[in-house]
Amino acid sequence: MAQYTENSASKPRILTGDTPTGRLHLGHYVGSLENRVQLQDQFDCYFIIANVHAFTTRAQQPTDIRQSVLDIAADYLAAGIDPGKSTIFVQSEIPAIAELTFFFSMLVPFSRLMRNPTIKDEIRDKNLGDSYSFGFLLYPIGQIADILAFRPALVPVGEDQLAHLELTRETARRFDQMYCGVDPQTPDEQYVRAGGLFPIIEPRLGRVRRLVGLGGPGPHGQLLKMSKSLNNAIYLSDDPDTIRKKVMSMYTDPNRKKATDPGTTENNPLWIFHETFNPDTVWVREAMEKYRAGAIGDVECKKKLVEVLVALIDPMRQRRLIYEKDPAQLLAVLREGTARANVVAEETLRLAKIALKQDYRPRTLL
Ligand code: ATP
Ligand code: MG
Fold this sequence. Notes:
The protein contains 13 helices and seven strands. By secondary structure, the protein is mainly alpha-helical.
């Protein structure tokens, strides 16, 4: 049985990324970005800007998608991702991903795809009705290819991605069993040792699995996640004035009309944000007690939150301004990253074609 040994770099790989449907926000920061910045010394990191996936909901806005690609690259650099250590690349420039998507699509039953809860949530929260494209349903398969093309050890993501990662794990098992002769009884962590091409990847959740948005509950009563597409986000590029306006008008306890009314801190984004971002935990604990007792106003607590968020975001925004003014530098980072990413993804595709017995013509990408 063929052994698919680790590629060039000796460090284990990480693959994760973002869809360029807007700029990055605090949800991305605590859900995944923070982790990525911390892990970039220990791991060989690949960060994909999934521009093809942006077309699933924005096929009519190619100019916006292009701008978002640059915005996300600027956000990465501003948040502390170092292009000297990590590889930032654009999905559409990696042909192996598109080719693997086709092969993987044969391994996933259509009914299994339709049971994916993240897909159902997205259709509901983004009001896609029944007008979504075939490509929208294809994107979880595309995501399997995004990930497995890099045969990573770890995939840092937010909670909404777990359903997709489960599908990735199932597909890797199926491929390895079907084409690499791996025994179905093999424990997940042994698949590669047992001759499998694809590892059964591990998700790594961030400090916060799912940060809520500013806007309160959705049509079904639960607080919506902070999302680029739902217009309920504070961006890493927001200036202090924008942050102030967003926080001062954010959703809190709707039943509280004045500062002396007892308030609910549970399921209240104001307190979720304080608990997530305010380093002064003593203040937070005391203020929450006062809030529940009707002894502190929303305005005071919101002003405090503005201070906390500006202190976190403003250094990133300042760094970002430098890159924003220099799209040529951003494009250079993306080009170099894309070249590095293609080396890994092409090697995976070559090995996949051998396993599939469809290796007729070796190729090299220039
Ligand atoms: P879109 O609305 O276009 O789907 P998004 O804001 O959901 O955008 P994605 O590009 O889909 O962002 O997600 C990128 C990564 O960030 C994923 O790992 C996702 O789990 C994580 N993420 C996104 N939003 C949040 C959030 N509110 N809390 C925690 N993690 C998040
Ligand atoms: Mg999303």
